[in-house]
């Protein structure tokens, strides 16, 4: 079997066009959706991420503010900026790019963001809402993975989903979203003794580890859907995922490429969360 590709760029294009339509409608009602992106320090990868986020926002007709600070910024100064953005009515989403420089407690900063503007979905209030099935912002990467399943017409209900990785930003919320969608979910991590034992039983595998070739063809059930969240580099410096793409595509029914799979969906879902936040703010006016 040769798997069909799940095209994250094509799905993103479609979803971003929907966001742009909603943004135009809100703007016509006098509420221009706004996202603030805060970057502290000079991390080169973070610089690229924030640029892409701001550009995507502007392309969708939304207002965006990029605040860049030197890594000498103190935690108190950053908390003061977050507080100002919490109180700025032109801003509906606040994103503080991680990682933060040493000396700034990222947890404290995320918790300072008003939950109604937490478009990254990292606040404990958002995580709690997801846990108990209440309305809240879903973290963008796992939310994007769920949209991809929807896009290809795969309903997780009754399926066995195996999530590899248990971080707060990808693995754990991914597992919660799949559970909410009535999958039977297994979460694997670095202390899982025999990863292949679990992945071979999976109808859906989500790899979110950050290591190349964590999932190889012999570990995949024929016909499984494979979503590759990982972002790694080959020896030649080429971007690649956690999955041995060339091998696994011969076994899976659907697979995401890297690049062009989950990556573009993360920014897209940030836009979706921001427009939802702006719509809620407009409805409450
Ligand atoms: P993370 O916080 O480092 O978590 C990695 C997880 O993988 C941990 O739970 C770890 O287990 C587990 N793990 C490590 N080695 C393993 C192994 N050999 N077998 C099974 N599990 C193992 O990383 P993250 O933030 O979740 O990100 C994961 C990957 O996704 C990274 O490559 C990151 O760059 C990428 N990512 C991509 C996007 C995107 O937009 N495409 C967004 C976010 C992240 P323990 O908990 O036991 O340590």
UniProtKB/TrEMBL annotation:
Pathway given in the UniProt record: One-carbon metabolism; tetrahydrofolate interconversion
EC numbers on record: 1.5.1.5, 3.5.4.9
Residue ranges of every copy of the Tetrahydrofolate dehydrogenase/cyclohydrolase catalytic domain listed in the record: 6-120
Superkingdom as given in the UniProt entry: Bacteria
Spans through the membrane: none
GO cellular component: cytosol
Cross-referenced Gene3D superfamilies: Leucine Dehydrogenase, chain A, domain 1, NAD(P)-binding Rossmann-like Domain
GO terms under biological process: L-histidine biosynthetic process; methionine biosynthetic process; purine nucleotide biosynthetic process; tetrahydrofolate interconversion
Catalysed reactions, semicolon-separated: (6R)-5,10-methenyltetrahydrofolate + H2O = (6R)-10-formyltetrahydrofolate + H(+); (6R)-5,10-methylene-5,6,7,8-tetrahydrofolate + NADP(+) = (6R)-5,10-methenyltetrahydrofolate + NADPH
Domain spans labelled Tetrahydrofolate dehydrogenase/cyclohydrolase NAD(P)-binding: 139-281
CDD domains (alphabetical): NAD_bind_m-THF_DH_Cyclohyd
GO molecular function annotations of the record: methenyltetrahydrofolate cyclohydrolase activity; methylenetetrahydrofolate dehydrogenase (NADP+) activity
Binding positions for NADP(+) per the UniProt entry: 165-167
The keyword Hydrolase is assigned to this record: yes
Keywords (A to Z) from UniProt: Amino-acid biosynthesis, Histidine biosynthesis, Hydrolase, Methionine biosynthesis, Multifunctional enzyme, NADP, One-carbon metabolism, Oxidoreductase, Purine biosynthesis
NCBIfam families: PRK10792.1, PRK14186.1, PRK14189.1
Family from the record: Belongs to the tetrahydrofolate dehydrogenase/cyclohydrolase family.
Quaternary structure note: Homodimer.
Purpose: Catalyzes the oxidation of 5,10-methylenetetrahydrofolate to 5,10-methenyltetrahydrofolate and then the hydrolysis of 5,10-methenyltetrahydrofolate to 10-formyltetrahydrofolate.
Descriptive protein name: Bifunctional protein FolD
Protein source organism: Roseateles chitinivorans
Source taxonomy: Bacteria, Pseudomonadati, Pseudomonadota, Betaproteobacteria, Burkholderiales
């Amino acid at each position: 079997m040769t798997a069909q590709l799940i095209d994250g760029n094509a799905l993103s294009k479609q979803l971003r066009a929907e966001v742009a339509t909603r943004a135009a409608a809100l703007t016509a009602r006098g509420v221009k959706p706004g996202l603030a992106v805060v970057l502290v320090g000079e991390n080169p990868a973070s610089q690229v991420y924030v640029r892409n986020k701001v550009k995507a926002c502007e392309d969708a007709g939304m207002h965006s503010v990029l605040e860049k600070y030197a890594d000498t910024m103190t935690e108190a100064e950053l908390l003061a900026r977050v507080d100002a953005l919490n109180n700025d009515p032109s801003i509906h989403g606040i994103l503080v790019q991680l990682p933060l420089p040493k000396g700034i407690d990222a947890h404290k900063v995320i918790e300072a963001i008003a939950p109604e503007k937490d478009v990254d979905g990292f606040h404990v209030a958002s995580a709690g809402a997801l846990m108990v099935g209440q309305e809240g912002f879903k973290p963008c990467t796992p939310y994007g993975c769920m949209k991809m399943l929807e896009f290809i017409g795969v309903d997780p209900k009754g399926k066995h989903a195996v999530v590899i990785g248990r971080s707060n930003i990808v693995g754990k919320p991914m597992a919660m979203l799949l559970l909410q969608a009535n999958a039977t979910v297994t979460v694997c991590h670095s202390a899982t003794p025999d990863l292949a034992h679990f992945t071979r039983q999976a109808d859906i595998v989500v790899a979110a580890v950050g290591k190349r070739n964590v999932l190889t063809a012999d570990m995949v059930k024929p016909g499984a859907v494979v979503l590759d969240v990982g972002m790694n580099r080959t020896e030649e410096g080429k971007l690649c995922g956690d999955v041995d793409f060339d091998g696994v595509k011969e076994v899976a029914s659907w697979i995401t490429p890297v690049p062009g799979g989950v990556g573009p969906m993360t920014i897209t879902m940030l836009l979706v969360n921001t427009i939802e936040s702006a719509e809620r703010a407009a409805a409450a006016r």
